[in-house]
Amino acid sequence: MQSNPGANEGATGAAMPTHADAAWRDVVDRDLCGARSPDFAWKPERRSQGTSETTGGTGRRLKIAQVAPLYEPVPPRGYGGTERIVSLLTEGLVDRGHHVTLFASGDSQTAGRLVPVRERALRRDDRLQSASAAHLAMLHEVRARADDFDIIHVHLSHFVHFPLLADVAHKTVTTPHGRLDYVDLAPAYSRWPSFPLISISMRQRQPLPDARWIGNVYHGLPPSAFPVSGARRGGYLAFLGRLSRDKRPDRAIEIARRAGMPLRLAAKLDGEDPGYFGSAVEPFLGPDIQYVGEVDEAGKIDFLSGSEALLFPIDWPEPFGLVVIEAMALGIPVIAWREGAMPEIVDHGETGFLVDSIDDAVAAVGRCGDLDRAHIRSTFERRFSDQRMVRDYERLYAELLDETPEWSFSHRPSTSGTSILP
User: Fold this and answer.
1) Which of 315, 335, 325 is closest to 386 using CA atoms?
2) Helix axes 297-305, 322-329, angle to 10 degrees
3) CATH number of the domain at 22-41+59-220+389-407, out of 3.40.50.2000, 3.30.1490.20, 3.90.1150.10, 2.40.50.100?
4) Are 213 and 175 in contact (CB under 8 A)?
5) Which CATH architecture has domain 223-382?
């Protein structure tokens, strides 16, 4: 098999040695690239390298760059939904015979090729740092190697890569993993309209209806990582995610208290969250409302498996919500606000309930026992497996490569001095 371009090299970036530092590159080769931690739980099942399914029936083994955010390692050690999806996609593509290069932090792990841009992920680095500088350094490296790849798949927010990759936009795809209703995003996209985008839900597209959407791919997770247990449940409601205003743990507290059930909150505190936690959550903690902190992957499975239902009382246009399908993977019903992508993910009355008020949510708690847990699991396996996700992205890569390249030349970014405001 042909070796992957740009493998195992350190990219010029914040607080990193240059390419000339061969000794440092030897350390990267030996200790970082292709490494896996013994307890890595997100490994997709291996497939035969000799079947047509290896390349999705296209007959092509592609050279693919995956460009990850630098905030968490890939895969993340704890919270980090985007990095988890990037890891699953990268490993799944490698398993299907493609040559995959991952641009990420140096503490990342992959069976493909790793180009580490800084020693460790930003949120695992206590030094004074610049996220902007780190990502710009990575994007410079991606552009310098662009000719080595058939597809460059970027997973960064706010289109920060558009200026640096504008002249190779035709071979890129961008999956924005966050909300797109920021007032500045539409004017920015109008400057670089040739960039193909892949949404993670149809609802996510609404703020940018005229963008070049080439497909929609729902997130997926490996069923093998979520063993369904027949053990007795713990008789509590679960809240898992971030303790932020958007996620509305205050609603979860009220729902649990009115339903007469204990609530356990497993969540990360980040940024402005501690202030919100102190005013909206902490005063209500007690024997029936417990905060258990942030949980790792093994702890997350135990936490969700022991619950009667997951409460997802969001108050924002959630573009996906990975924890929702994590609960479904374990056969746990989900009670979710009818916001964002939830109507696309939760089958009302089958895998959970969509609600519009506290009263609706309290009533739904009483109905969760009527749902078939095995059906919830089988729905997850059918709609939200990691292999389905990898196949969907693989198909879109092939379709993009089959398009005529002239499309990009007729959609060059605007270089005039006229206003881009509506």
Assistant:
1) 325
2) 60
3) 3.40.50.2000
4) no
5) 3-Layer(aba) Sandwich (3.40)
Q: Is beta strand 263-268 parallel, antiparallel or unpaired with respect to 334-337?
A: unpaired
Encoding tokens for residue 102? 């991952």
One digit per residue, the tens of pLDDT, for the chain of length 422 reads: 444 444 444 333 333 333 333 333 333 333 333 333 333 333 333 443 333 345 554 568 999 999 999 999 999 987 778 999 999 999 999 999 999 999 999 999 999 999 999 999 999 999 999 999 999 999 999 999 999 999 999 999 999 999 999 999 999 999 999 999 999 999 999 999 999 999 999 999 999 999 999 999 999 999 999 998 766 577 999 999 888 889 999 999 999 999 999 999 998 776 656 788 888 899 999 999 999 988 888 889 999 999 999 999 999 999 999 999 999 999 999 999 999 999 999 999 999 999 999 999 999 999 999 999 999 999 999 999 999 999 999 999 999 999 845 444 333 333 333 333 33
Q: Are 12 and 137 in contact (CB under 8 A)?
A: yes
Q: From CA 125, how far away is CA 138, in angstroms rounded?
A: 17
Give, in degrees to the nearest 5, the angle at Cα 160 between 244 and 84. 55
**Contact call for residues 102 and 113 (beta carbons, < 8 A):** yes
pTM over 0.85: no
d(C-alpha 388, C-alpha 218), whole Å: 9
* Measured distance CA(209)–CA(62) in Å, rounded: 30
19 vs 203: CA distance, rounded Å = 43
Task: Please answer whether residues 307 and 233 qualify as being in contact, where contact means their C-beta atoms are separated by less than 8 angstroms.
Answer: yes
Q: List, in sequence order, the alpha helices (H) in 240-296.
A: 249-259, 273-276
**What is the rounded CA–CA span in Å between residue 392 and residue 218?**
9
Same fold flag, 22-41+59-220+389-407 and 223-382: yes
Domain boundaries along the sequence of the chain? 22-41+59-220+389-407, 223-382
